[in-house]
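On clarity, I found the account of how folds are encoded harder to follow than it need be. What matters is that the chain and its backbone geometry are given together, residue for residue. I therefore recommend that a typical entry be quoted early in the introduction. An entry of this sort, consisting of the sequence and the corresponding backbone structure tokens, reads as follows:
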Amino acid sequence: MSVARVTEIIASSKTSFEDAIQKGVARAVKTLKNVEGAWVKEQKIVVENGKISEYRVDLKVTFILTE
């Protein structure tokens, strides 16, 4: 029987939501062991001078705890 934990991270990109998700997951797997999955809790944008300047995602990352 395994036990999982969920942690929340925020990632950003100047390109797209997809890029922000990729960066967030890539960073999570560098720090956390046994990452099993993630889901996007929220998406936000930053607007400057009438244009989108940044895409942000709030991710919930699930990883399995080891003994």
Q: What stands out?
A: The first strand starts at residue 3 and ends at 13. Helices lie at 17-31. The beta strands are 3-13, 35-48, 51-65. The CA atoms of residues 35 and 63 lie 4 Å apart.
